[in-house]
Design brief:
Order of helices and strands: EEEEHEHEHHHEEHHEHEH
CATH class: Alpha Beta
Oligomer: single chain
Distance between the termini: 30 Å
Number of domains: 1
Number of helices: 9
CATH architecture: 3-Layer(aba) Sandwich
């Protein structure tokens, strides 16, 4: 299992597949590299590198005070150093997109391009409230089948999703135990999110502006509760060259194998140096 040591010694898990222009895929807040299983077949001409954030997936746990965007951004740079990559493109879903924008402001020479997935410089309160409601909690359901049914019912922004997809989702993000299902990340992540929520909301537009000159794309779920269409319009005003799609029948976040997502990903990849 490939790992590297973060600056503080935490073991960080990653996968590294394929050849071509390197793309580092960064998942959502509680998720891991398996999120990009759906996109991987359409990125076969690229070197796809997926990192599990500390405290998630197969990476080591390091405590709530380290589960911050600046620390995780530093881990991305450490991964590039470990792989001896001068730079790479970043495919950032939700939390991963925030990390990408921070790196654009602090380590821009290490970036070859950025594709944001359902994230922008302003976060809608409804989506943030949804995150605070579920994070760090084990599901009440005791079987994968029941959990899949629960997700299909609760995620009302998603339409025309086969039952098998929800089953795949829960198998990627829960662990079956004798006492029911458990989340596959450090529950202390909840403490980190709550602590961050007590701080003043930073102005992230300068971080978005830092993406200037980089090939940029944005994939949004048309029913997203985290990225408003008004924020998208302002992003487009500031970056009229940004490739954009609004994926039908999807909320936060698209799976990335939808036709609209694939089209944007394919176009963006051709722009990378």
């Amino acid at each position: 299992m490939p790992t590297f040591d973060a600056p503080d010694g935490t073991k960080i898990h990653y996968t590294d597949d394929g050849h071509g222009t390197p793309v580092v895929a960064l998942a959502g807040l509680t998720r891991n590299g398996s999120d990009f299983d759906y996109a991987a077949p359409y990125m076969a001409s690229n070197r796809l590198i997926r990192m599990d954030y500390r405290g998630r997936g197969k990476s080591g746990w390091s405590g709530s005070d380290t589960y911050t965007i600046p620390t995780e951004a530093a881990d991305v740079v450490a991964l590039l150093d470990h792989l001896r990559l001068e730079n790479a493109a970043l495919l950032g879903t939700s939390r991963g997109g925030l990390i990408a924008m921070l790196l654009a402001a602090t380590a821009k020479p290490r970036l070859a391009g950025v594709c944001l997935v359902d994230i922008g410089p302003e976060l809608a309160p409804k989506g943030l409230e949804t995150i605070r409601d579920y994070i760090g909690k084990n599901p009440k359901e005791t079987t994968m089948k029941d959990a899949a049914t629960m997700r299909a019912r609760l995620l009302s922004g998603f339409k025309n999703v086969p039952e098998t997809r929800w089953q795949e989702e829960v198998e990627r993000h829960y662990v079956q135990t004798e006492n029911g299902l458990k989340i596959n990340y450090d529950p202390a992540l909840r403490d980190a999110v709550i602590a961050a929520g007590t701080q003043p909301v930073p102005d992230l537009w300068p971080f978005f502006e830092a993406l200037e000159g980089l090939p940029l794309a944005l994939i949004r779920g048309v029913n997203s509760d985290l990225l408003s269409i008004d924020t998208v319009h302002e992003m487009q005003r500031r970056r009229p060259d940004m490739i954009f799609t609004n994926v039908p029948d999807r909320g936060h976040v698209p799976f990335l194998d939808e036709p609209a997502s694939r089209k944007v990903l394919t176009t963006w990849l051709t722009l990378l140096p």
